[in-house]
Specification:
- The protein is about 10% helix and about 40% strand.
- The chain is mainly beta.
- The longest helix has 30 residues, at about 555-585.
- The chain has four domains: about 1-215, no CATH class; about 225-395, Immunoglobulin-like (Sandwich); about 395-545, Immunoglobulin-like; about 555-585.
- The protein has five helices and 41 strands.
- A hairpin with a 5-residue loop joins strand 33 (about 460-465) and strand 34 (about 470).
Length: about 575
């Protein structure tokens, strides 16, 4: 009987349930039909389980594992400090639906990647063959703490789901729009041990061993925090709600660039029907083979989650959320086996989902950016976490090819330019040799397929083969020729430094000797973008040409030309004088 009493105290003290699964000391609405229990006089009725901080909108389901078979008040004493009575003799038996639990086996993956088949029921519970009563099988249970108790609860729920055990009660936690949590209770219960489950997968613990039991739903719903990588630093930008600068995470990129995303999802062990949803704007093209998921074990080791535990769905016909007129770009469905897998995950239950997309030709230019929103759904309804959004921005730079000053300034047609990436130190003098690769461009059209006025260009989309060779889209050009306005705009640029090189001047005008340094600077927290010409802020990159033919410089090759030409003239003159003198002598 002492063992039975120990069962009461230990299970009630240790069972902290994953999947909001808790083993508690109280009983079911209707006691299971059992063999003659030789019931003695005792408090078998009047049990109550109260769940404080229950989440509004979630369902709470009750299973009974054990029933109170015998009770004697022999030896019961009431402490003078008013705490719970001590002593007494209790014995508990497995309900009919749970008798096979003692032989329930699972496969556990060891740290060395070997597998062990463990009879999980007998690991936690021990059966007395003579009395058919059960006791706690683990000696020194206090040293195992909440984790062992939570695992026991998780395995018990796993068993209940696999065996399709019918719950004895179910309560929907309802409330008005202003409520997020409240207290709910299962009343008029027969005493025993119960499993409380919710699709949240939250943890609960017990406050008391009285017949009136209070459990505290200690954990919140799953969370999702999205981040996007800024390629210039390699850092992932994310919204920082605790910062004075509470901003939507953002980065900037070239059109055609691969953008990396990361979503950190916090779940509770045993959460049900877990799905990850992602909604990309038209300016982003999802790369479906880029998805990778990692998690940390209790030892702190980061492991990649095997793809057998999830699937990436891109052919989506259903809505991402019933209340939204918007489809997912893709979603990730976690399997039931993943719920079991969470047993290996550390207490924090954090999984990290990484994937990428390409900033495409439909990208929105400027600070409005190209949003990517993700959310997590869970439970039977399902319920959704708030959306977590990042913005990927790209920029445009206007150019003006002109001559003259003030009101006399006019645009020049026929100038040919080439935009180059900057691969050199911008603190040096701008020379042609310091400019990097030519940037390929495509004329940008409006929604009707018409040209803009002034004309606009965007960065060309390309593919890269295994050898690193690029193949550009149709219509890609490496030069821009100005029209009569002298104006054009280049769109889809990352914040960086560029060289604008004039390769051919308009007829009758001098060509620029050196390329023009163009800079785009972006502050992700303030959203301020700055365009600079040769380190000077400006709203437009103006490039001037002077009228006339450029004369050779003194001391350069021009001097040599004069020397050669002068020498030829002198020699010619000398020859002419000699010829005239001979002709004169002959006369």
């Amino acid at each position: 009987m002492k063992k039975a009493k120990r069962l009461v105290s230990l299970l009630l003290a240790f069972v902290m349930l994953l999947s909001l699964t808790v083993v508690v000391g109280a009983a079911t609405v209707e006691p299971p039909v059992e063999p003659d229990r030789n019931v003695m006089q005792g408090p078998y009725d009047g049990g109550k389980i109260t769940i404080s901080n229950a989440v509004v909108g979630e369902d709470y389901t009750l299973y009974q594992i054990l029933y109170l078979a015998n009770f004697s008040d022999e030896g019961i004493t009431t402490p003078t400090d008013g705490s719970n009575p001590e002593g007494g003799k209790y014995s508990y038996m497995l309900t009919e639906a749970w008798k096979d639990f003692l032989d329930y086996s699972i496969t556990i993956k060891n740290s060395d990647n070997t597998e062990t088949v463990t009879t999980i029921g007998k690991y936690y519970l021990k059966l007395d063959a003579e009395t058919n009563t059960v006791t706690w099988a683990i000696e020194g249970t206090d040293s195992y703490g909440d984790v062992k108790a939570a695992q026991f609860a998780l395995f018990a729920l796993q068993f209940a789901k696999e065996k399709k055990i019918k719950p004895v009660a179910k309560i929907a936690c309802t409330g008005d729009s202003s409520e997020t949590t409240k207290s709910i209770s299962f009343d008029d219960l027969k005493l025993g041990y119960y499993l409380v489950d919710t699709t949240l997968g939250s943890l609960c613990s017990l406050d008391t061993t009285n017949k009136v039991i209070t459990m505290i739903d200690k954990n919140s719903v799953p969370t999702n925090l999205k981040a996007v990588e800024e390629d210039s630093t390699g850092a992932f930008m994310q919204k920082n709600a605790e910062s004075a600068h509470d901003y939507v995470a953002s980065n900037d990129a070239d059109i055609g660039q691969t953008v990396n995303f990361r979503s950190t999802v916090t779940i509770n062990q045993g959460v049900e029907n877990l799905m990850f949803h992602d909604i990309m704007s038209n300016g982003l093209t999802f790369n479906s083979d880029s998805v990778s998921i990692t998690y940390k074990t209790a030892s702190g080791t980061a492991n990649e989650l095997d793809k057998k535990y999830y699937s990436v769905v891109t052919s989506i016909t259903e809505k991402c959320e019933e209340s939204q007129d918007q489809n997912c770009t893709f979603h990730i469905v976690f399997t039931d086996e993943f719920i079991k897998k969470t047993n290996e995950i550390a207490n924090e239950k954090i999984i990290v989902i990484t994937y990428n997309a390409t900033l495409n030709a439909n990208a929105v230019i400027g600070n409005d950016g190209n949003p990517n929103t993700s959310k997590v759904s869970y439970g039977e309804k399902p319920s959704y976490t708030p959306g977590s959004t990042t913005l990927t921005k790209t920029w445009e730079v206007p150019f003006y090819k002109s001559t003259g000053e003030g009101n006399a300034k006019t645009g020049l047609s026929g100038a040919v330019f080439k935009l180059r990436s900057n691969k050199q130190d911008t603190s040096k003098a701008a020379t042609k040799d310091e400019a990097g690769d030519t940037i390929m461009l495509v004329e940008k059209k409006d929604s009707d397929g018409k040209s803009y006025s002034p004309v606009k260009y965007r960065l060309a989309i390309y593919t890269t083969d295994a050898s690193g060779n690029k193949t550009y889209e149709s219509g890609a050009v490496d030069t821009i020729t100005t029209d009569e306005t002298g104006k054009f705009t280049i769109c889809g640029l990352d914040s960086s430094s560029y060289w604008m090189e004039e390769v051919e001047a308009p007829e009758g005008y001098n060509k620029l000797k050196d390329p023009v340094l163009v800079k785009i600077e972006y502050n992700s927290q303030t959203g301020v973008v700055t365009i600079k010409k040769q380190n000077t802020p400006t709203s437009e990159i103006e490039i001037k040409n002077n009228y006339g033919t450029e004369l050779p410089a003194t001391g350069g090759i021009g001097t040599t030309i004069f020397y050669v030409a002068g020498s030829i003239l002198l020699i010619g003159a000398a020859v002419l004088l000699i010829v005239k003198k001979r002709m004169s002598d002959e006369k």
